[in-house]
Amino acid sequence: MITFDQVSVQYEDMAEPVLRDVDLTVEEGELCLVVGHTGVGKSTLLGAVNGLVPHFTGGTLYGRVTVDGRDTAGHPPRELADVVGVVGQDPLDGFVTDTVEEELAYAMEQLAIPPATMRKRVEETLDLLGLADLRHRALYELSGGQQQRVAIGSVLTAHPRVLVLDEPTSALDPSAAEEVLSAVTRLVHDLGVTVLIAEHRLERVVQYADRVIHLPGGGLVTTGPGAEVFRTSSIAPPIVELGRAAAWSPLPLSIRDARRKAAPLRTLLGPEPPPPARPGTTTEAAPILVARKITVSYQRVPAVREVDLELHGGCVTALMGRNGSGKSSLLWALQGSGPRASGTVRVGTADGGKPADPRELSAVDARRLVGLVPQTPTDLLYLESVEQELDQADKESFAGGSGSAARTVLDRLAPGIDDATHPRDLSEGQKLALVLAIQLTAAPRVVLLDEPTRGLDYRAKGELIRVVDGLAAEGRAVVISTHDVEFVARAADRVVVMAEGDIVADGPTTEVIVASPVFAPQVAKILAPLPYLTVHQVTRALAEGEEGR
Ligand SMILES: Nc1ncnc2c1ncn2[C@@H]1O[C@H](COP(=O)(O)OP(=O)(O)OP(=O)(O)O)[C@@H](O)[C@H]1O
Ligand SMILES: Nc1ncnc2c1ncn2[C@@H]1O[C@H](COP(=O)(O)OP(=O)(O)OP(=O)(O)O)[C@@H](O)[C@H]1O
């Protein structure tokens, strides 16, 4: 269905080609998972399938890509739209109409599908993706996850024979992600649709993949069954890390298979409580931020309802909850620039002065109290090069800055980004790393991160955890709004769960997520009822057990 014949892609300002002499065949009805580190070329590979690369991205494509027999060199994306449906990383980028219903119908209109069929498919898709209540909503009024659902729905309605999904679940809550992926799997099994998915949260997708396409770097592409590729790959979901640590063979890729193999491991770990998942930072007694009765409404519809929240220095809090439950709205209200219908926010200053409401300060002063990295980080990038962005951040931080603080953070999160690169040309993960670096340079006392792990690979997430640990150790309060349960298991001391604008759970991470069918990480599911969250806890417990003998 898809063939790559000696394909190389070279972008103008890069020394090396992103893809080099790639040969690849994807059969009809196959679901292939595309994996690789940030910036390695996954989006480029996917973009070549519908001609987006190089028709829209620039650069040069050598060799030949065909889809359903059509050569993409001679067919721009528009002429492939009846065969290939594409969902890109940023849903807003792809929207062409104004409302949910219009967007779901748009692709079908272009293909001149009869109105009665269109109606039926729109209704089916609204139900499938839980969008029925939002059908008349303007797209820009939706939460990030709701937008991603629409983007996926608008492609599914056209019933393409090839689906190309670039991180389709990055903004979805865990249940929505599962629903979308099982719907896609149904299309594969029942209709023979061919699917390519690039995804960093492998824990969500490995069990659905027929085959894994691995980009190890250097423009190379290798493929094989998941159980083989993950035996040695440098990126692996927790289930694979656990399987490797326990020497399970063949490597299980579903929770069910892993649980079957895990009985001896459970016995070995025994009844003792696991070692802590995180290095305990000492939490300060007095809160840095106190929010009381925060309410946020849009056109009088409440998104956040009278929420009370206290944030302590040294503590990392994860903010979780379904798409549209009010997480982003709460963060922006705390930071001061978002709408707040009522309620108060008080943030203590570093010098022990009178607590202030960030909403009442100048933007620069507010940013030293509360920093927020938004869900679409590109909103904060407006200069011409990476170097200019970093310099600007250093200038706005402490008294002028030394000119290298922002670069240091960036290099930890995503090494090797050239100063001269235009921020627009960075991969999604690289953009996020840049914005994080810029915000963290101002060293605010309260750091709010909205979905920071979108587009980050495991290595970058590990770095982000170290950065976050560092912030907590310096006595800052950190809040991370996220759907990434594996990240929460490793990064958070406390979990706050929102539902329909209210806080419905608040407690230590282990207590809140271990027994939750939605929020439990893979290790917890595999080892239940033992309260383990991370592979690291398991390997440490095993090592301590060895020493004890
Ligand atoms: N239009 C472009 N012009 C110049 N360079 C580009 C362009 N698009 C991507 N690149 C560069 O090519 C490399 C591969 O980018 P690509 O987006 O394919 O990576 P990726 O594996 O999808 O990354 P991520 O996991 O972060 O999405 C990156 O170094 C990126 O900076
Ligand atoms: N500008 C707006 N106008 C109208 N409604 C809005 C607007 N922004 C958000 N909403 C609605 O408010 C509710 C809360 O949105 P919010 O973005 O805070 O949710 P969230 O928990 O961050 O979601 P996600 O996990 O999908 O990012 C949602 O139902 C959303 O549709």
Automatic annotation (TrEMBL):
GO function terms (MF aspect): ATP binding
Pfam family, one: ABC_tran
KW Transport (keyword) present: yes
Matching PROSITE patterns: ABC_TRANSPORTER_1 (PS00211), ABC_TRANSPORTER_2 (PS50893)
Family label: Belongs to the ABC transporter superfamily.
Matching PANTHER family: HEAVY METAL TRANSPORTER
Name assigned to this protein: ATP-binding cassette domain-containing protein
Organism this protein belongs to: Streptomyces albipurpureus
